[in-house]
Amino acid sequence: MASSQLNAGRTLRMGTALARRYVLIGPVAWGGVSTVYRAIDSLYGRAAAVKVLGSDDPGVRERVRLEARITARLVHPGVPRVYDYGDAVADGRTVPYVVMELLTGVSLAGRVAGGPLPWREAVRIAATVTDVLAAAHRRGVVHRDLNPSNVMLTSHGIKIVDFGLAALIEPEGRRRARPGPPPSPADDVYAAGVLLYQLLTGRSPYPGARSGALLAGPMHGLAPTPVLPIDGLPPSVAEACRWSMRKPPAERPTAEELARALWRGYESAGSSSARSSSTDVSGVTVAQPSASSPRSVPGAPRSSLIRMPVRR
Questions:
Q1: Burial (CB count <10 Å: 0-12, 13-18, 19+), residue 158
Q2: I want to staple 303 with a disulfide (CB 3.0 to 4.6 A). Which of 146, 202, 267, 287 is the partner?
Q3: Rounded to two decimals, what is the model's pTM?
Q4: Cβ distance 116 to 202 under 8 Å?
């Protein structure tokens, strides 16, 4: 059953004024346990997005509150602003809500559904997204769910949305016992590499894998299919993508290092062009770099395309 059908019975009446202030105009999105409404903040007379939880599960309610607190601490142009959050009585029940900046635009998933993006656009988007991740990591936040559906292309720039799975980075000595490895910025960096790969090729580096399995891919030896040459793509960009998707998390760059590498590759294209590529007997295209090609990624081989190691 679709999420919208699950939530249909719990949709609030239009005209409802949550907290005697946020007047709901109409639903704009549905999630598994929440509905997002377009609303008017009657105090300031501005449009806003109001996310209303439809579940009575205390754990889910706390997750929404944590999402609001985490997002509110990320004061950045690439993150939607959180104006308010709390509980309100509506239709005879208490509902948690979060009031956020109303975004107008399209998701990156819709943009990439039409096929690969021009490489300059793809690199610009990935570099901007990675800048936002770097800012989040400096504030101790890991997004943990970066994918094209959670990136919005708006009239006010690129925004990372949906911090519903985000987590705070806990100092080594204060970590609480939880199953699995602790949240790590390296997870976001890996996801940024996957995102760039998708934008450049129009497909996942792990064909057939569920989106939720992408981070587990390196742990289970999944190998992406080598891609076709991308005309004009600077070797340093392909190297940066490969660097971010290395299997050992400790060998990946930080988000800040990845952003710098991508911006350098983006800017270098105006002054120099990538050399042509040739194909070896294995069917994998290998670069023919010039002696002056920039090396922004330590230890990574030069390549004019993204070529991930294949499992033997």
A1: buried
A2: 287
A3: 0.78
A4: yes
Closest listed residue to residue 165, CA positions, set 101, 71, 73, 82: 71
The token pair that represents 189 in the structure block: 């960096």
Chain centroid to CA 147: how far? 4
131, 145, 162, 188: which is the annotated catalytic residue? 145
Q: Which residue has the tokens 């970066």?
A: 146
Q: What domains can be seen in the chain, in order of their start residue?
A: 19-100 (3.30.200.20), 105-287 (1.10.510.10)
Structure tokens of 255? 């988000």
Q: From residue 137, give the alpha-carbon distance in Å to each of 4, 35, 93, 124, 255.
A: 33, 28, 37, 20, 8
The string of pLDDT tens digits covering residues 29-40 is 887 778 999 999
Strand 105-107 to 22-30 pairing = unpaired
Angle formed by the axes of helices 119-138 and 255-268, nearest 10°: 150
Let me know: does 226 contact 308? Beta carbons within 8 Å: yes
CA distance 253 to 191: 12
Separation between Cα atoms, residue 152 and residue 80, nearest integer Å = 10
Catalytic site includes residue 145: yes
What is the per-residue pLDDT across 256-302, written as a single tens digit (0 to 9) for each?
999 999 999 999 876 554 443 322 222 223 233 333 333 344 444 33
